[in-house]
Amino acid sequence: MAIRRTPFHEFHRDAGARLIDFGGWEMPVQYKGILDEHAACRSAVGLFDVSHMGEVRFRGPKALDAVSWLVTNDVRAMRDGQAQYTAMCNPRGGIVDDLIVYRLGEEDILICVNAANREKDYNWMKANNPFNVDIQNESDTWAQLAIQGRHAEAILRALTDAPLPDYYRFTRGTVAGVEGCIIAGTGYTGEAGYELFLPAGAADILWNAIHAAGAPFGLANIGLGARDTLRLEMKYSLYGNDISDDTNPLEAGLGWVTKLDKGDFIGREPLLEVKRAGVSRRLVGLIVEGRIARAHAPVLHDGQLVGEVTSGSQSPSLKQNVAIAYVPVGLAAVGTRLQVDIRGTLANATVAKTPFYKRPY
Amino acid sequence: MHYPPEYRYTKEHEWISVAGGVATVGITWHAQDKLGDIVFVELPAVGKALKADKDAATVESVKAVSPVYAPLTGTVTEVNTELEATPALINAEPHTNGWLFKMSLADAAEVDGLMDAAAYAAFAASDH
Predict the structure, then answer these.
(1) Going by C-beta distance under 8 Å and a sequence separation of 6 or more, which residues neighbour residue A16?
(2) In which element (H, E) is residue A220 found?
(3) How many CB atoms lie within 10 A of CB B126?
């Protein structure tokens, strides 16, 4: 399969980005350096190219029914202009993907899916469409930028007359003269900020306009490396690491988006059973002493293997080594002392309150 | 990049500076550049016997763990303890203050098998 590039590829190259293959996409992993970029987003504002994310559009009188059948959250409770985070499950209750659903209208729903799952999700949605609604893969028609940080609002205010949305709301409007943009009050960093859906053909205009408006605020380009440390500090799940087809939303800490009483949906039966019996393991945050735990490191308790790290790094904001791991429910309480086997050496770890990071404004 | 001409280099992107039978070992500018921000370093114990091409140390960036191999056979005589608190020294000054460890050499002639600066610069330039 040919490597795919976003409409911002030339800008990344010109900015001196280091490009890597990320799920078939040639993406910037860093520009100046992960620590600098992380700090810029936390202290000022950062710009992320997230055009590799996919967009699927559901249209028609039964669009909401179709989406509700596919996802765990109660999309019928949304109003126009509202966004909702959700899981999409398989019939075993495992997670096909985690998504954000945008209600453009009663008969018009846009769903943002993970880059690596674009085709998988679209095929899954088409194959599980009992209401026969119109489902279109619009991934190539949209580009997407995230503007995250305390100055994100000021930058967007300079570029649009559209009202800026609150958290998990969105507005549609013209940004930097580009019509048909969606400004969403969502993000993956824990900062205030926005995710901007824009017509792919307008990528150049938006990139230049945002940089021009952002320069006085110290706007920095942010690569996937810092995107990962930023989300890790919030314990936001990364599909493929922390959640997968073999983990269910209840054990993954996504019970809050799993509405078992909303009516039937794919995976509801096994999830009801999990809820009845109680989850056997939980995704928890760990503070690890002295060493950096990475994905797949074994987690031990009293010398016994009890779980596995799914994500881990040094937290640039906290200067502590943090990790996300599945542990048995009996060892999931905050303060529980565990060990992580890091390439043959045991490091002490403590179950910690999450998110690890809380923004100070 | 400037690679000191008096050093020798390995295909694993380490540099070696030999003086009086003791070799100082670090990772090259190219190696630290590829790794990115270094946040953790694990060094061998002083007195540890090292065998050429076997694991000697570990350097970790935000995203990746990278083993450092012993460039030569010998015994660790000193480690750079400054790196415990300031691993980013390796990024800032990879060829000088960012050195990792020193080792006495079992066979000084082993050094002759390593690359000189010109050969390494060409090797690094071809490595992406």
Answers:
(1) A31, A32
(2) strand A220-221
(3) 7
**Testing the interface with A: which of B34, B55, B62, B66 to mutate, by most A Cβ within 10 A?**
B62
pTM flag (> 0.90): yes
Residue A341 burial (C-beta neighbours within 10 Å; 0-12, 13-18, 19+)? middle
CA nearest A342 in B: which residue?
A: B65
Quote the crossing angle between the two packed helices A34-43 and A224-233, to the nearest 10°.
Answer: 50
Instruction: Give CA A306 to chain center in angstroms.
Output: 27
Beta bridge partners of A326: A283, A308
Q: CA neighbours within 13 Å on the CB side: how many for A131?
A: 19
Evaluated on CA atoms A89, A91, A93, A94, the torsion sign reads negative
- Chain A partners of B37 at a C-beta cutoff of 8 Å? 33-36
Q: Does A229 sit within 8 Å of B62, measured CB to CB?
A: yes
Contact status of A291 with chain B (Cβ, < 8 Å): yes
Other Cβ atoms less than 10 A from the Cβ of A280: the count is 11
pLDDT, tens only, A220-244: 999 999 999 999 999 999 999 999 9
Q: Phi, psi (5° rounding) for residue B83?
A: -70, -20
Beta-bridge mates of residue A85:
A100
Q: How far apart are CA A217 and CA B73, in angstroms?
A: 53
Per-residue tokens: A260 = 């078992």
DSSP A132-186: --EEEE-TTTEEEEEEESTTHHHHHHTT--SPPP-TTBEEEEEETTEEEEEEES-
In angstroms, the Cα distances linking A313 to A158, A193, A297, B22 are 36, 24, 12, 35
- Distance, CA of B109 to CA of B95 (rounded, Å): 22
Q: What is the mean pLDDT of residues A34-40?
A: 98
Complex ipTM over 0.90: no
